Amino acid sequence: MAEAEAKEEEPKVEEPKEEGAKAGETETPKDEAAKVGPEDRSKGSMPDPSSLMGDGPKEELAEVEQLGTISLETLNSYNCNNPDRRLMCLFGVVYDVTSAVKKYGPDGSYSEFAGHDITLTLGAGQMGDKWLDKYIKYDPAWKEGAEKWVDYYAAKYPKCGFLDKWNEDPDSWPAPSDEEREALNSQCLIL
Questions:
Q1: For residues 68 and 161, is the Cβ–Cβ distance under 8 A?
Q2: Could you please report the per-residue DSSP string of 21-39?
Q3: Whose CB has fewer CB within 10 Å in the chain, the N or C terminal residue?
Q4: End-to-end CA distance of the chain
Q5: Are 139 and 183 contacting, i.e. CB atoms less than 8 angstroms apart?
Q6: d(CA 62, CA 184)
Q7: Going residue by residue through the chain (191 aa), what tens digit of pLDDT does each one get?
Q8: Which is it for the CA torsion 188, 108, 117, 66, positive or negative?
């Protein structure tokens, strides 16, 4: 499983050349993968999922225990601090992200996602835990934003179940308050 994690691509950032450096020299190599750390998350920055997909052949996903339909309480128990298994949910599909310790483990870049439904968080581009496990009627832009991540998660992590909350009609969920709508639409940084 560690091999699969090592193959995951991170966004690449070209470091500017320091003043006085010779032509061709940089502070770090141009092709060194940049990591999105906690300081970036607080600003709400996340890579565009299409930039993470790569053009190579699709990797075969590990076989994992299937859980069937689970409750939100059960999903929450598979958080970043669960030493045996970590799960997350997008549009009701539960993914096993256990293999990605550097992303979803206790010290991971996206540790707060483990054990939660991240659909609204990704859809509105709002980082942090305020919008995790939040079920409100989605604006079309939020739904579209979250849909951009479906192919990425389906290609990277094995599906292992379904969250029962998504058996409900999302149109029956409450409308967001004006304050929630304003907060969700502010600084939408996930493209």
A1: yes
A2: PPTT--SS-TTSBP---HH
A3: N
A4: 29
A5: no
A6: 35
A7: 444 444 444 333 333 333 333 333 333 322 323 333 333 444 455 667 766 666 666 678 989 999 999 999 999 999 999 999 999 999 999 999 999 999 999 999 999 999 999 999 999 998 889 999 999 999 999 999 999 999 999 999 999 999 999 999 999 999 999 999 999 988 644 43
A8: positive
Q: CA torsion, points 50, 100, 157, 34, in degrees to nearest 10?
A: 10
Which residues neighbour 65 within 8 Å (Cβ) at sequence distance 6 or greater? 160
User: What domains are there in the chain, each with its CATH number?
Assistant: 2-185 (3.10.120.10)
DSSP per-residue letters across 97-161 = -TT-HHHHSTT-TTGGGTTSB-HHHHHHT--SSTTTT---PPPHHHHHHHHHHHHHHHHHS-EEE
In one letter, which amino acid is 182?
A: E
In whole angstroms, how far apart are CA 138 and each of 43, 54, 118, 122, 124?
23, 29, 13, 12, 9
